[in-house]
Specification:
The protein is mainly β. Helix content is 0%, strand content 49%. The protein is built from no helices and 24 strands.
Length: 262
Amino acid sequence: AGGANALNVVNNGDIQVDSGYTPTQGGSAAISVSAIDATPVNYSGTGNLVNLGTGDGLDIAATGSGAIVANVDGDVSTIGPASGGIYLSSSGTGANLQLTTSSGRTIRSGGVVGEYLVITNAASTGTLQLSNNASVASPVSAPNTLATGLFADQYGLGSVAVVNSGAIGSAADRLTSFGISADILNAGSTATLSVLSGSGSIYADTGIRTVNVGSGASTVITGSGLIAANTFGIISSGTTGSIAVATGTGAVNASGVAGICR
């Protein structure tokens, strides 16, 4: 879609891609949406998305200045080794990306990521906001296969904010890379990066990872949720910007290198 009018996608039904099949129009996801120019995209609904092929559950991409707002109130499940549950991306300028998932729902993927937001344009001032209230896990039939639960990847000049209250992984389903990963990868950025993980427990090789190569401040705050990690509980790195890590009542445990490293 193109132009200044909003593209509203409301999904209140179940959509499934069966094993051995790949959608041939618009992408390989169960739902694929693309927008150009100033077109904003608004996704909502209680419908479930299942992809038993190789693709993602929900893909929304913007190449212009239009924002993406996705309120996912259904379950999402994928099994492909290179797949993701939800994938929002912008290669344009100034487009904000916002994803909110609902409590009582589950985002499952046997691939690289459960929920992924990325701005790829170095000149973009768009922001990334990821608010996860759902459980994030591997497929029931293939535990310990999901790599990263929540991932916000900023190559532009805008800020990054990740808020989590959902369970990411479990004692029987540990993520192979990161529970939460948030990056600002533009050296010219002065924007802030923040991760707030409240009541949801995290089981992963590394619980929370942040990287900020710009000069803006980075903040990691945890609440009552347990972080059970193999390598690092929390690792936060940067260049010239300040780094603050504050832990709540939930334990931060790591059997490998360190509980907290910055």
